[in-house]
User: Fold these one by one.
Assistant:
Number 1:
Amino acid sequence: MLKDGYLFWFLGDFVSREVVPRGVIKIGRCVSVKGAEEVLNKPYSFEISTGDAIMYFVAESEREKEEWINSVGKAIVRQSASVLPEEQTDY
């Protein structure tokens, strides 16, 4: 689930306010999202990299995988575009 600049994932398909997420990633920490079938040797898999870690996910179909990659990719772009110039670091 993508919400308010965070990606949450859960153990099951049923999500309510009482269900605790299995994990959370702040989109602002993400640097890339891409397919990972070659890495995991599983169809419909993709990876999200934060620079510090790589998390792997498996969708239920090619379409769902592409929707996740597109949604997370757009969220990364939106987040990076919202960084104020004074927050950026010159290298």
Note: The helical segments are 37-40, 62-81.
Number 2:
Amino acid sequence: MYWCCAHLRPRQERLAIHCLELGGYQVYLPRLREQRVSYGRKIETRPPLFPGYAFVAIEARWHAVRWGVGIIGLIMAGAAPARVPDGVIAELRSRERGGLVELPRQPALRPGGRVRIAHGPLQGCVGLVAGMRAGERVEILLALLGRVVLTKDAIEVV
């Protein structure tokens, strides 16, 4: 038995998982615990960690999974499904609390907060966050260059 990754059809995730489980397959769909505010109330949502994908434990009958209801296909490595190491599944399950994956909280990027550029030609420069843009981009004020727009993963909070 080994784990592989199935690409699920949009809005048919529950159906695909149900049909796989009826077929005797072990399915793992890690979900996140997220808090959001709606109309002044805190609401807990449980979206998938990897939207549109689920892990399936297969033996030799992977063709039945590939053509299952609600499944677009399997992530392939040549002519066979790509193997997901057992350690990856174990790590995801170790992060679960009450059946939901809890990711470590990252420091908030707020306008006026100090950040250091971690990668690229401006590595090591310290600046202030000017604002956020669409696509996970951060606008930073640097003393030498004025405004610079970088990706969120290129900076670290100081």
Note: The chain has a mean pLDDT of 84.
Number 3:
Amino acid sequence: MTDIARHEPGSFSWAELSTSDPAHAKGFYGELFGWTANDRPIPGDGVYTMLQLGGRSAAAMYSQRAEEKSAGVPPHWNCYVSVESADETAKKVEANGGKLVAPPFDVLDVGRMAVFADPGGAMLSIWQPKLHIGAEVVDEPGSLCWVELATRDVDAARAFYTAVFPWTAKPSPEYTELYVGKRAVGGMMQIRPEWGPVPPNWMPYFAAEDVDGLAQRAKRLGGGVRMPPSDIQQVGRFAVLHDGQGATFALYARAHHG
């Protein structure tokens, strides 16, 4: 099932791009994923662009805010977790050592949200849906299929997030999978020294049929490859890319068994 009418609380429901060049980003992701851009005015002379796949909301973008630029925050993807109550979840964030960057606030009549930093510094948003549920399509090519935390302390992150969200963690030496009930919704892994000065972060994965082809296309469109297409045994193939402004995201193609 890929068309979504509701996101289970604790599921990743949305990804949005904060970009320094919306015009370039629209062209890049439109060519890469087949997204169409639907600009919507927001209060304060801003524009929030819904990125649609076959007429269904898949993601969004906005022009990076002045305060982000002045703070030296590079263009990046924001990831959202669907929750029953933004206020109750925000209380859990603070009670477990996280920091509210934007305390709960209403977004017109479409939802209520908050932004926080976990104890390791990774930023994540929460979304209490009203008129806008989040992504209307997931798990098909060009739509969100996984979200992953890179952190310097997996054990501390696991303790924090399982206290804040209805997640159970399934750790292995290399990777920790995060579940809502019996469904895996995301993962976390340790930042490795060879990655260089990577800050702790949550990164969206978008489903792809041809990871290698899209990685090449991203380079032709002015983006680049941070981690070349690679296989995860029995799981699938992935690559980590960046767009023309440097925002990082990943591709994933599930392994076909049988």
Note: Residues 22-33 form the longest helix (12 residues).
Number 4:
Amino acid sequence: MSFGLGFWAAAGGVAVATDYELISTTLLGSTTASVTFDVSTLTSYKHLQLRTAARSNRASTEDALFVRFNGDTAGNYSSHWMEGRGSSVTSGAQTNGTGIIIDIVTAASSTANVFSASVADILDGFATTKNKTVRSLCGTSIPIVSLQSGAWRNTNSVTSLTIYAGNGSLVSGSRFSLYGIKG
């Protein structure tokens, strides 16, 4: 018997617990601008999943967390989001960005030592016939609950992914875990 796993199952896919394999975890011991995973040897997986618990040092209550692929810093990314902040709901989009928004993280003016969590699925990252898509779900103590989706308008196979804060750096204690999802 198989069972659906959260976000993956909610999107119509069915995965079993053994379909997810932990590839690597990075726990920051100091503040850093970005975290990069080399995924060039992971082509046996159909999809990747990035799980984060992150915080920015931006002088604000929040910051955006982005992912970009293969070191591409050109305006080849689109992002869309819908977020709930208490009783209000907003949505938005960004075109021609330099990365895909995957989280709204707590920042320096938020309650100390509180990190935001997200789960981002990188779909068909190794396919060479379609653009890459990402969907993510995040939550913070600000309080914000947010759904994001985005695209890297490129058909190249993903060889690396870089996670970075939009207006600050990632602080010590931030954790990034990369999983492979079998086809």
Note: The chain has one helix and twelve strands.
